[in-house]
Write a structure and sequence with these properties.
about 290 residues, alpha/beta, Rossmann fold, 8 helices, about 35% helix, binds NADP nicotinamide-adenine-dinucleotide phosphate
């Protein structure tokens, strides 16, 4: 479904925008000192009405990008888009694994902006909890469909859309993987398997799409979002104690990592999965 909740102008107008990116008390990192690494660029972030996707969109916007956000629920997406300065963000509602939605997103970007520079494949689902040996295979198929094939399909769409110039723009892809894809985690085994596939897909596509397009991923441990509440709610201090940095992640932490990988500061970085986990894997923990 098309939903131009907040009209966006040509990317050049993004230069005058300084996006808001409120810091929590536990994450007092200052705004980047005047960094405008995405001025004049267009970035698509899937699953961005809240959580990590919204954090990524806010950071790319704060650095000058025009941002296109997707999510299923129109109202929440409209509210997210309204947080950005007029003319710098656009929301398009739909299911990430729906080919018609993806085609609409790419066609709309082509029509309104005529280019795409950064693609952040952030949508990921985990509808089941329990041992992998007993997982319902239809649930497993759905996880694989959304997390793995969805990620691949978004990249295919960006690369093959002739009016987006993704290759000519030296396009950058960043996918959101997970530490659950690096080390098995109790109860979320198949989700971890799908994220391991996302990480390997990242490396495979990077090898195939160089030198024009760089492809990287970020693999977070627990980030404080709706998605992860079951992993920390009511016991945040206890969970954070296993992390060498002694706190859980925030969407701003992941936004900063994605912005780096998407920027010209990372020109020599491709085919990498950046573990953003406050050190917890190295310290012996898991997701
Ligand atoms: N939070 C963590 O601890 C953590 C750790 C490692 C990796 N990750 C990964 O980070 C990514 C984002 O997670 P999050 O924690 O930010 O989750 P979140 O707070 O629940 O946000 C998910 C976003 O994606 C949208 N979305 C969900 N399913 C969708 C679908 N099928 N099609 C389109 N949009 C969809 C949601 O909006 P609607 O509901 O309206 O669609 C929402 O905007 C996921 O890939 C997840 O696996 C998260």
């Amino acid at each position: 479904m098309t939903a131009g909740f907040h009209s966006a102008d040509a990317p050049e107008s993004a230069d005058s925008h300084e996006g808001s990116n409120p810091r929590s008390a536990s994450n007092p990192r200052p705004e980047p000192a005047g960094a405008r690494r995405f001025a004049g660029q267009v970035a698509l972030i899937t699953g961005a009405s809240r959580g990590i996707g919204l954090g990524v969109a806010q950071r790319l916007s704060a650095e000058g990008a025009t941002v296109i956000l997707t999510a299923r629920k129109e109202e929440a997406l409209a509210e997210a888009v309204a947080q950005f300065s007029e003319g710098t963000a656009l929301g398009i509602a739909g299911k990430s694994d729906d080919p018609a939605h993806r085609a609409e997103v790419f066609d709309t970007i082509a029509e309104k902006f005529g280019r795409l520079d950064v693609l952040v494949t952030n949508v990921g689902i985990n509808p089941v909890y329990g041992p992998t040996i007993d997982i319902d295979l239809d649930a497993a198929r759905k996880i694989f469909e959304v997390n793995v094939l969805g990620t691949l399909a978004w990249v295919q769409g960006a690369v093959h859309h002739e009016q987006l110039g993704f290759r000519q723009n030296r396009g950058r892809v960043v996918s959101i993987s997970s530490v659950a894809g690096e080390r098995p985690s109790t109860g979320i085994g198949f989700y971890g398997i799908s994220k391991a596939a996302v990480s390997h897909l990242t490396k495979t596509l990077a090898v195939e799409l160089g030198p024009d397009i760089r492809v990287n991923a970020v693999a977070p441990a627990v980030v404080k979002t709706n998605f992860a509440t079951a992993l920390y709610e009511g016991r945040e201090d206890e969970v954070a104690a296993a992390y060498p940095v002694k706190r859980l992640g925030t969407p701003e932490d992941i936004g900063a990592a994605v912005a780096y990988l998407s920027s010209s500061d990372a020109e020599w970085i491709t085919a990498q999965v950046l573990t953003a986990d406050g050190g917890v894997l190295t310290a012996g923990g898991s997701a």
